[in-house]
Amino acid sequence: MKIAIAGKGGVGKTTISGTICRVLARKGEKVLAIDGDPNPNLSVVLGIDKDTPPQVSLSTDIIERIEDGDSWKFQVKMPFDEILNTYGQDAPDNVTLLIVGKPDQAGTGCMCGSHTVVRELIHSALTSENKAAMVVDTEASLEHMKRGTSKYVDKMYTVLEPYYRSLEAAGRFADMARELGIKQVEAIANKVRTEEEKQAIEEYCKKINLPIAVMVPYDENVTAADLKGISIMDYDQDSKMIKAIESFVAGLN
Ligand SMILES: Nc1ncnc2c1ncn2[C@@H]1O[C@H](COP(=O)(O)OP(=O)(O)OP(=O)(O)O)[C@@H](O)[C@H]1O
Ligand SMILES: [Mg+2]
Known about the structure:
Elements: E1 2-7, H1 13-26, E2 31-35, H2 42-46, E3 63-68, E4 71-76, H3 80-87, E5 89-91, E6 95-99, H4 114-127, E7 133-137, E8 155-160, H5 164-179, E9 185-192, H6 195-207, E10 212-217, H7 220-228, H8 232-235, H9 240-250
Parallel strand pairs: 1-7, 1-8, 2-6, 2-7, 8-9, 9-10
Antiparallel strand pairs: 3-4, 5-6
This protein binds adenosine-5'-triphosphate and magnesium ion.
């Protein structure tokens, strides 16, 4: 299973991605968490100690530029499993984290931008033979899902919050995802506090034909854990947010 989590800035993509990974892993799945954000912070949500030094940093050197007739294309130099062995990082509950969002610019190599590196690496992961469940935490754009990558994603979830601009943005993400050829796009509503908010989300999503996979409540424990720099999974097992993600994960496949 390969899923991508998208949405506007700050809606909760990383919190939700990381929690999905840990809940899946606790059910016995081998999970690969891919952090595609240029400001990577999935590691804390996954439960990696915030003082752990970052893993070996990826560099743009990992990509080569290949002549292709009159033009050229980019390609990752090594097989994906070698990338994972070199740059992957162990996280609790049998999750492996691969941070791809912030490659170091090498002086040599492909001379390509970091966007190209991220896009190619995500493509390499999704098209590899690796059987792990993959969860991609995207940055707040769908730039990385281009290059035909989208067809390897089983589902994309667009995270939204209960206010109008967020709902509208989720609609745009869903349209873009469909244009990119992603077969299934659904919403994850996050930080929902009241029945009124729930209804407004339901109404809007119905109007734009966007199924809602789960309603995740606003949860003070999430912000409290975030303030301490620890994973919600290590803060309060019985948290409302985790319960919602558990029911979401139970409905996957
Ligand atoms: N269900 C929730 N209840 C309360 N707070 C939440 C919930 N989900 C996320 N948050 C809080 O919202 C803030 C943004 O969350 P997060 O970093 O996961 O969003 P993001 O979409 O990944 O942001 P960015 O676009 O910057 O990558 C954090 O402070 C997080 O603790
Ligand atoms: Mg994030």
